[in-house]
User: Which sequence fits this backbone?
């Protein structure tokens, strides 16, 4: 994925900026000069508007400003390293040293969400952040990113499938949704449920003695229904979930079922902007 997204011209090390506003203007101007935008002023305003919704400092030292706009020519990711850091209008988080700046056209919502999720997970990796800050050239940054490239996928025949993910611990839903988006699944519906075993253990007196098997955990589970075009997406999700410390091969965590569909009617897309 990274080799198809990253443009070396959009890798910047130690730009001369002293504030968040300087950074935003400098980022937008830089992207504009490389033909990713058709109107820099409008995109800058939309970026600031998005920032007012929520500060995009993902964690101490890391910022992830992003926006969708009709003035974006094509999806882009700008990587900026600030060796000494800058204030990012969020005193509790400290100075920002790593910036991933993302923009996409309005018709690229799926790709946009996928890149957001993948970048977010990568930036949570402390070893990656240390290596990135230590880079002294664009080539070093580029090669580092390629080192985190996913394995090449074998060709998969596109078709219609229903993926059902049974998750026995509903509190893991946020991580699961982020992992799903990362592998390109953006249309899931979530249903709260309870497994047969837990129903018997918690609510049927004759089987009440079985509750010890749940070790005091909640009886609630969740079912996530999603339409996928490739079976490989489910297999890839299984791998990505492990990186979120959710291993479906472990007992009591959950499982995935993939069912081929004969026909799909209607439109999955929702009228929701991110």
Assistant:
């Amino acid at each position: 994925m990274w080799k198809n997204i990253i443009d070396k011209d959009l890798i910047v090390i130690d730009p001369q900026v002293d504030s968040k506003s300087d950074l935003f203007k400098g980022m937008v101007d830089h992207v504009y000069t490389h033909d990713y935008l058709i109107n820099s002023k409008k995109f800058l305003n939309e970026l600031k508007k998005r920032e007012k919704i929520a500060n995009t400092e993902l964690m101490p030292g890391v910022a992830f400003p992003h926006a969708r706009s009709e003035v974006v020519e094509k999806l882009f990711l700008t990587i900026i390293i600030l060796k000494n850091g800058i204030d990012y209008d969020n005193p509790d988080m400290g100075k920002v040293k790593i910036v991933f700046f993302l923009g996409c056209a309005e018709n690229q919502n799926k790709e946009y969400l996928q890149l957001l999720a993948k970048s977010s997970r990568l930036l949570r990796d402390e070893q990656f952040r240390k290596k990135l800050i230590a880079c002294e050239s664009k080539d070093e940054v580029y090669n580092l990113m390629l080192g985190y490239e996913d394995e090449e996928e074998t060709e998969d025949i596109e078709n219609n499938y229903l993926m059902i993910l049974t998750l026995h611990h509903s509190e893991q839903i946020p991580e699961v949704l982020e992992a799903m988006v990362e592998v390109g699944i953006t249309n899931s519906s979530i249903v709260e449920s309870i497994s047969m075993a837990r129903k018997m253990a918690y609510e049927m007196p004759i089987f009440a003695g079985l509750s010890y098997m749940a070790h005091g955990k909640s009886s609630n589970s969740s079912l996530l229904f999603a339409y996928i075009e490739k079976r490989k997406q489910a297999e890839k999700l299984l791998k990505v979930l492990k990186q979120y410390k959710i291993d479906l091969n472990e007992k009591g965590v959950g499982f995935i079922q993939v069912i081929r569909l004969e026909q799909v009617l209607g439109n999955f897309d929702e009228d929701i902007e991110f």
About this structure: The CA atoms of residues 205 and 246 lie 32 Å apart. The radius of gyration is 22 Å.
